[in-house]
Amino acid sequence: MNDVKGFCDPRFEAVRAALAALLRQDDVGASAAVYIGGEPVVDMWGGYADADRSVSWERDTIVGVNSTSKNMTALCALILADRGELDLSAPVAAYWPEFAAAGKQNVLVRHALSHTAGLPDLSGPRAVEELYDWESVTAALAAQAPEWEPGTAAGYHALTFGFLVGEIVRRIAGRSLGEFFAEEVAGPLGADFHIGLSTEHDHRVAPLIPPPSLTDEYAASAPPGPDGTRRDNARVAIRVKDANSVAWRRAQIPAVNGFGNARSVALAQSVLANRGSAGGVRLLSPRGCEPARQEVFRGEDRVLGAPMCWTAGFGKFGNTFGWGGWGGSVVASDPDSRMTVAYVMNQMIDRDQQEDNRGMEIIMAAYSGLH
User: Fold this and answer.
1) Exposed, middle or buried by CB within 10 Å (0-12, 13-18, 19+), for 227?
2) Contact present, 252 and 196 (Cβ < 8 Å)
3) What pTM does this model have?
4) Residue 273: phi, psi to the nearest 5?
5) Enzyme catalytic residues
6) 121-155 pLDDT tens trace
7) Which CA distances in Å does 319 have to 64, 134, 246, 332, 333?
């Protein structure tokens, strides 16, 4: 059963064909969506929600998208900045006074958003379960010393990004990042995306499937550095079995534990590609979208071991910005064409074992529809 279901504007037939091809090859279940001008032109899905291929992937199937969640967390910060409640150039400690400890008084909000704050690792937690205690994790981060002078270097803040940005949002809005997102983004847009998933949605979740030949003990890790060694100091090992657990769904780990599908990911992010609005709902001013595409740092990322361009919350690649998640999900926005493309799946691929170009194939197919 590789039938692709859903809606596809005839101009974007290449996206339907690309998704169908992926479902014939590597994918078990997946969804793809393209929004232009804040309106859907592709909303498609297919395959199966389980490794046994016994449950169909439906229109409302959702899945953990791992670091694709960072795009949503960043959007919340940009909304507050656009409202004048958050200054991206202010010290984090202006909103979170305890954060000034251990030489972090000069860490700016934009450093936290651009992976340049010098806090790529959590010094405290060692076990995944410890990540579920928001107060404990953020208190440890506030006490931690930066690894480098903030703003002078970048190092992917895989887990800390969500706690840093989430606590800034919480201090300003008086709500958790997940609550803020639900009330200020998902609710107004009608986007089926969740940071902190409640029980009534459990039956719709497609569990993540470990990469071929690996088990659910497979853990996320930073890629090898230029010298071939891996950076894993003080990194909590998150396994597929953790990301599939009920405790993980209920927690708020805004860098990595959002749940949604391609439609909801693309809808929420299309706001930033379409000058602040989608589907007739305005979340930001056109000017408020600009930090998503404005370069904050360009150079070698110490954690990823690769050249990167970081904006306030996003990776920048040419004219597009966005980010992807462990295993393969991705979203990319292009303000010049007002297009956002998302791809979300349950079959993970380990990039150490094989190349994973699935998301890029969907993105390139979408671009072919513009011409």
Assistant:
1) exposed
2) yes
3) 0.96
4) -85, -15
5) 67
6) 998 778 999 999 999 999 999 999 999 999 999 99
7) 27, 35, 38, 10, 9
